[in-house]
């Protein structure tokens, strides 16, 4: 479990499928610049939560919970890419929970977490069109480290994926 001023990052619990469906998985705004597909029907959400729980067992990824209410409002995580290199593995908040400073708390928390595990360098990625993601990354002092052209597997469109890094 990881903790910030307002948030808890913890492994998913099955009973949170409804909050995740309502706050995140059904929201096209949240999925727009990521690689996952929206869950249209609430009846598909319990299955998605079972898959999430399985995935999180061997990945350093979490759901994001509001401390104030215990409600699940997003997901986030990191991945080790080299002996001292960690990468952000996607930060996502539901649209009602974006723009409140939570993204900044999460990214700082993930950087601190990686550092505690031995990271000396941390990498983030943002789609060029994702102004919120770029602003978040810049706000924590990351610097540009290149760009790649990627294909969005959901619809075959292409996008520029900007890479940023920070020495810890
Ligand atoms: C991207 C995302 C994680 C950012 O988190 P957030 O909680 O909205 O961001 P914060 O409120 O912590 O803001 C961080 C900084 O970005 C700025 N910012 C936030 N949203 C912005 C926007 N839409 N446009 C421009 N700047 C923005 C803030 O002003 C702040 O800068 P400051 O500290 O210099 O004032 C969040 O918007 C989100 O989950 N979006 C949907 C999923 C997604 O696209 N994830 C990124 C792909 S990995």
Summarize the structure.
The protein is an alpha+beta fold and 168 residues long.
SSE blueprint and pairings:
Blueprint: E1 2-3, E2 7-10, H1 17-25, H2 28-31, H3 45-57, E3 60-66, E4 72-82, E5 85-93, H4 102-117, E6 121-127, H5 131-139, E7 143-151, E8 158-167
Parallel strand pairs: 5-6
Antiparallel strand pairs: 1-2, 2-3, 3-4, 4-5, 6-8, 7-8
Helix pairs in contact: 1-3
Structural category is alpha+beta
Amino-to-carboxy terminus distance: 22 Å
Strand order of the largest sheet: 1-2-3-4-5-6-8-7
Average pLDDT over all residues: 98
Describe the model.
The protein has 168 residues and is of the alpha+beta class. The protein has a single domain, classed as 3-Layer(aba) Sandwich (Aminopeptidase), CATH 3.40.630.30. Helices cover 30% and strands 35% of the residues. The chain has 5 helices and 8 strands. The chain has an 8-stranded mixed β-sheet with strand order 1-2-3-4-5-6-8-7, sandwiched between helices. Strand 3 (60-66) and strand 4 form a beta hairpin. Helix 1 crosses helix 3. 30% of the residues are buried. The mean pLDDT is 98. Bound molecules: coenzyme A (COA). Coenzyme A binds next to strand 5, helix 4 and helix 5.
Key terms:
168 residues; 35% strand; 5 helices; eight-stranded mixed beta sheet; 8 strands; alpha+beta
